[in-house]
Specification:
With 186 residues, the protein is mainly α. The chain has two domains: 69 residues; 79 residues. The chain has a two-stranded antiparallel ribbon with strand order 1-2. α1 runs parallel beside α4 and α5 runs antiparallel to α6. The radius of gyration is 35 Å and the shape is flat.
């Protein structure tokens, strides 16, 4: 019964028959045979399984609490995470632009760091310069990131055109309650 006990203890930890069998030296076939024929073992295995489920449920709840407390559940933590990602993207972009600018200094506009070398032609032997789509993508991602941060902080104001019924122009009628006074003559 010692190996059976070792199997059940291992199962409480991992919740997998194969892994528990390997850890305890019990063959899976022995476990299933005993499970079919031994009522006491059935009860002990059921308890081990319930212990495993309880443990992973508690761990999941603990992780969920930590996750909620750390980041997504609180605005200031979301903003902090946005700032961290923005700093990382910005540093990476600056580094790429500086290195690319140094490499492409001999090409008109190359010092900007926005261009890259490419090759075209039948044998890909004709060198060309073009705007790097990766840099353009990073710039777009930075811009989207900044917009999202502004939305989160309530700083984004979108201008909208006021239209009348059916999308037409809006008419405004102004009426004066008191007639305008004439300025005194000098």
């Amino acid at each position: 019964m010692n190996r059976a006990r070792a199997f059940l203890d291992a199962y409480r930890i991992c919740g997998k028959v194969k892994a528990a069998a390997e850890a305890s030296g019990v063959k899976r076939r022995q476990h299933y045979t005993r499970l079919r024929t031994d009522e006491r073992y059935q009860r002990e295995f059921r308890e081990a399984h319930e212990d495993y489920l309880l443990r992973i449920r508690e761990e999941a709840e603990e992780r969920a609490e930590k996750f909620h407390d750390l980041e997504i559940g609180q605005l200031d933590q979301r903003i902090k995470a946005l700032q961290t990602r923005w700093d990382m993207l910005r540093r990476g972009l600056v580094q790429i632009i500086e290195e690319r600018g140094a490499d492409m200094h001999d090409v008109p506009g190359g010092k900007s760091g926005l261009l890259c070398r490419d090759f075209k032609g039948k044998d890909a032997n004709q060198e060309i310069s073009k705007i790097d789509p990766g840099i353009a993508g990073l710039l777009g991602e930075l811009r989207a990131h900044e917009k999202f941060a502004a939305e989160q902080l309530g700083q984004l104001v979108e201008k909208r055109e006021v239209t009348g019924p059916g999308g037409g122009a809006v008419s405004i009628e102004v009426s004066f309650v008191k007639p305008a006074q004439q300025p005194p003559a000098v």
